[in-house]
Write a sequence for this structure.
């Protein structure tokens, strides 16, 4: 996925390129190729076509166009960035890292370059080096008031991926993001997940209580509190939270109670109550209930809700 920087820079560079309204990449490639027939020295058009080839995972064609753009205009530093991203997509992390490093030599204060480099290092399994690169990109973006929640999430996952000994640092990195972004629910969810993994039950429960206080709908947060309590082996407390969440759902207006998300939550709550075993059963006799809705996975790049303090 192109960085915000790369997308913005390319959009600026390609502004003068002929507009192609059709969304089909094959059609767009065909149209850009026609324009190249009459304007073969236009580096921006090669960049445009290279990006289109990249959306189709046609790596050799994309890289060939990027190299042609570089030959036509050696001052285009952005070529190294898009080459790095393309090589990362293609799975060649060694060459991708070399391209990212070349880009950062010419553009050391570019946040997008550091984020791409971080993603490459993460793909190589160098979690802590990746986290440091994410931090550099985050700091530059923050100074420009261009912070992105996804970068804080990626950094925290990189740190947590280095092992449980680093969970406190991962949680602290999310709290730093929360101070910067405010009401970033995705960061809170990952923090709860990591606090639970670190067996910091009280911290997770306190975080949930703080969020729930301002939430219009309480049942989701009751369910999450039940998950933490179940993970802590406090089965009866978890059961009470799950039952309270079901009771809250029952009090909703019929049209709200019948929507898929609400009926799905109710079904999940009943499953979790059943997973706790008979009332009074010893903790762990049937295993702790799994999370109802896990926080963003380490590989996720989806556009999950990241803000809004009243979920």
């Amino acid at each position: 996925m192109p960085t915000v920087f790369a997308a913005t820079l390319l959009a600026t560079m390609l502004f003068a390129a002929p507009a192609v309204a059709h969304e089909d990449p094959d059609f767009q490639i065909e149209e850009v190729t026609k324009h190249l027939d009459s304007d073969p020295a236009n580096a921006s058009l090669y960049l445009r076509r290279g990006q289109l080839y990249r959306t189709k995972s046609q790596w050799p064609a994309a890289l060939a166009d990027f190299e042609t753009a570089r030959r036509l205009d050696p001052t285009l530093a952005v070529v190294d960035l898009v080459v790095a991203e393309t090589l990362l997509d293609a799975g060649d992390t060694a060459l991708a890292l070399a391209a990212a490093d070349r880009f950062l030599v010419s553009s050391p204060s570019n946040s997008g370059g550091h984020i791409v480099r971080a993603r490459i290092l993460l793909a190589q399994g160098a979690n802590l080096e990746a986290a440091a690169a994410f931090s550099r990109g985050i700091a530059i973006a923050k100074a420009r008031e261009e912070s992105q929640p996804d970068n804080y999430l990626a950094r925290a996952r990189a740190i947590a991926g280095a092992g449980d000994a680093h969970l406190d640092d991962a949680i602290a990195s999310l709290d730093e993001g929360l101070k910067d972004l405010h009401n970033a629910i995705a960061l809170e969810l990952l923090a709860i997940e990591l606090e639970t993994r670190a067996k910091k039950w009280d911290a997770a429960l306190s975080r949930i209580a703080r969020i729930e206080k301002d939430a219009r709908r309480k049942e989701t947060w009751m369910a999450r509190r039940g998950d933490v309590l179940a993970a802590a082996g406090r089965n009866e407390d978890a059961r009470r939270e799950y039952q309270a969440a079901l009771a809250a759902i029952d009090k909703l207006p019929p049209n709200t109670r019948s929507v898929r998300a609400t009926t799905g939550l109710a079904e999940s709550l009943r499953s979790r109550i059943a997973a706790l075993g008979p009332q009074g059963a010893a903790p762990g006799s049937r295993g702790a209930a799994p999370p109802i809705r896990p926080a963003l996975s380490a590989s996720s790049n989806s556009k999950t809700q990241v803000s809004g303090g009243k979920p």
